[in-house]
Amino acid sequence: MKEFYAVMGPYFARYKKYIAGALSMNIASALLNVVSFMSIMPILNILFQVDTKVYEYVEWGTGDLKETAVNNIYYYSQLLIAQYGPATTMLLLGLVLSLMTALKTGAYFGGSAFLMPLRTGIVRDIRSDIYRKILSLPLSFFSEERKGDILTRVSTDVNEIDASITSSIDAIIKNPILISVYISSLIYMSWQLTIFTLLVVPVLAVAIGRFGKTLKARSLQQQEKLSDSISQIEETLGGLRIIKAFIAEGKMMARFDRVNNEYRDIATRVAVRQSAAHPVSEFLGTVMIVIVLWFGGMLIFSGSSSIDAGMFIVYLVILYTTLQPIKDLSKAGYAIQKGLASMERINKILSAENTIKESAEAKEIGGLTEGITLEGVGFGYNEGQHVLTGIDLTIPKGKTIALVGQSGSGKSTLVDLIPRYHDVTSGCIKIDGHDIRELTIRSLRGLIGNVNQEAILFNDTIRNNIAFGVDDATDEQIQAAARIANAHDFIMESEQGYDTMVGDRGCRLSGGQRQRISIARAILKNPPILILDEATSALDTESERLVQDALERLMKTRTTIAIAHRLSTIKNADEICVLHEGRIVERGTHSELIALDGYYKRLNDMQQL
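Above: the chain sequence. Below: its structure as tokens.
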């Protein structure tokens, strides 16, 4: 349980008042339950003439508290029977029991009701914490993790925590209280018998605990296999066209069946072990009752017991009642072990280190006045592997710098360093003379607009996709941005104009339409720095013309860094930098680079063919 409280403790701390309410209600329920047991036996003993002794009232404080209490309960029970008769006493006894049961069950319900906001709140908080962490983590984290695995942790693992851990909160709060109250009552009734009972219980508890030893490890394997299957489904949806083109349905089905069967085998073993908890605890609990019955009978027959036969029956009833919360607590222990396996997987996200840290003295930057400078910039995703080496580059305000080179030369990595999606491993990047690591991330990224090769749209309206990140945009501003991006006409021709849903990742729009909406989004943001990452490379000729026209309007008066494979789109750049294996090997205007008759000219000649 130590691991459980270490993991869930911070979440419990947010709901202290609900836990306090649940504790008070469960204490009241347990006490009422014991009192109802204790109060019935004296009346039944006298009523059915099991005890024929005549009791006299004893002043409180004149003798042993326990003996005085038992004597006076019997005394008042005799008075009740003598005054109202056996039949009426039975009726009164039934009414008292009904009242006690109503109070007990009311307190029991109150304890559970107090925990409902805690249960639902913890699941909500875990999901919120995961999503918040996902938003804050650097892009490098997601390049090392499978998308399907992350989705499983957010959905299936959180659901497992709800089913296993939060559903057990009631048991781990209520049952220790019930057990403590019941055992205290048993000690009060007969300390000798209770000590013997407590010597037997640990032996049985160890036997029960052996069943849960491997449950957490197997549950962890179960969730990992489920992640594998969901990852394969996610891959299949993304590559369905290729699967069908290569007639690979059978191969993919076999691959999925293998993982699916492995998941089923592990899930079966986990379920069997978990379902064994109840029958095993039931059998061992009965064994304990038999042992206690034998020992208690020996004490009573020998005359060395502090309780009589009638009270021994009450003792056994309370002891048997104690078994149920022990079983429930044992069952909750199994469930918690299973849930902790899911929590361990979730913690891989929650405890992941965010390498993009913001300095405590970070400064705000409101605009661009001079330009961007890269001084000896080096970067590698892994230690010892260099993607960029010794990059020196100055981008004056209002100028357009183009980056060209073969795939894998480091172009996209270079532009990702400017908004701090990654941090440089050597050298520095400065904006207006300020190292970007000394600026607030929010103000730094607020200066930059992006138009990427793949236009990323969200399953929302065209209006909301254009206004994404600009909360106070008016309809007039949105439409003006769309007109500049050559998007207004096709938007107005769509079903509901600007309120048309674009579908998942913009699937209802063509590539050129998606790209023009992403350009409109950048225009509306109106950033002083613009990064274009092969924004026209995936478009047909007509779409490219419209998008290129929109880009030229967007680039006016802005400092632009453009990555391009099609050299025709960057001929008018103020400076073109040619990257090869992470280094700038040539730089100059289009005409100057052609005159060099080097790497850039070879690229240009190949595209002319």
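Residues 365 and 443 are 6 Å apart (CA to CA).
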